[in-house]
Write a structure and sequence with these properties.
6% strand, mainly alpha, elongated
């Protein structure tokens, strides 16, 4: 991976490389979030699906040398996103109105599974974006 990044940097320079990294990271983050949404618990009526609907992949934050993309859940309507994510009983509590689908760690799990091969995917996306 380091060799691939050095090669890209030598061809286009750091500024363009970091912008391309942001684009590539966002694309990978969108794939992770799509899986995560499917794993998020769904509370039964009347507010079913609010947690899944609050999923966001933010635009890249780019500095001179880094690119960061945030994946988040929750908004004013879903203040419980963190509590659900950290609850090992999420999706299986059996309480009335509780979710019967989904998992706890619904964002962390897909992100951890995506780590394998991420460097290669990012480098490939960067080359495609930079046309090299």
């Amino acid at each position: 991976m380091k060799k691939a990044l050095r090669d890209i940097n030598a061809r286009v320079g750091t500024k363009q490389m970091v912008r391309a990294a942001g684009v590539a990271l966002k694309a990978d983050a969108e794939d992770i979030m799509a899986i995560s949404v499917e794993e998020a618990p769904v509370r039964q009526a009347p507010v079913g699906g609010a947690l899944r609907a609050s999923a966001r992949v933010h635009n890249p934050e780019v500095t001179a040398t880094t690119a960061t993309v945030r994946l988040t859940y929750g908004d004013a309507a879903v203040k419980y996103a963190f509590l659900i994510h950290e609850n090992p009983n999420a999706g299986i509590s059996g309480r009335p109105g509780a979710s019967t689908v989904g998992n706890w760690k619904f964002l962390e799990g897909p992100a951890r599974r995506a780590i394998k091969g991420m460097g290669r995917r990012i480098a490939t996306s960067m080359r495609r974006a930079l046309r090299i």
